[in-house]
Amino acid sequence: MKPFTEDVIRVIRNIPKGKVLTYGLVAALAGHPGAARQVARVLHTMSSAHNLPWHRVINGQGKISLPPAGGYEIQKKRLESEGVEFGRSNRVDLKQVLWDISSLDDIENGTV
DNA sequence: CCACTGACTACTT
DNA sequence: CAAGTAGCCAGTG
């Protein structure tokens, strides 16, 4: 399996409930800063196979990048169910819901 | 190996 | 705040 893909999946799997991460952040945590776009690809490719919480991954503007016909509503509802609040522009307060990277610890393990 | 594509990000208008 | 432009990197053909 592609190392990059594995790392990305690992990171996403460690995102706590009620928190979100941006593509760029996930890529950085995976050890590939700047590869935000590939994170998106991994999500699309592995989400179903790995049962990942892909809905906890949004873009750097605190918004969902998916088109209305691509699962946008689903992601929004799932996040709201976890306590994530959406503003009038369908944006979330990153300061509030963005995962506190300081809590990172199990990712190096990869034992999940 | 080269070229194209993409759930992105940052900067500028 | 919204829209356009340029730079990014990895996966796929």
Q: Which key terms come to mind for this protein?
A:
DNA-binding; mainly alpha; 5 helices; Arc Repressor Mutant, subunit A; 42% helix; globular; 112 residues
What does this molecule look like?
The chain has about 110 residues and is mainly alpha-helical. The protein has a single domain, classed as Orthogonal Bundle (Arc Repressor Mutant, subunit A), CATH 1.10.10.10. The protein is about 40% helix and about 5% strand. The protein has 5 helices and 2 strands, in the order αβααβαα. The protein has a two-stranded parallel ribbon. The longest helix has 15 residues. The radius of gyration is 13 Å and the shape is globular. The two termini are about 15 Å apart. The structure holds a DNA duplex (13 and 13 nucleotides).
Write a concise synopsis of the structure shown.
The chain has 112 residues and is mainly alpha-helical. Helix content is 42%, strand content 4%.
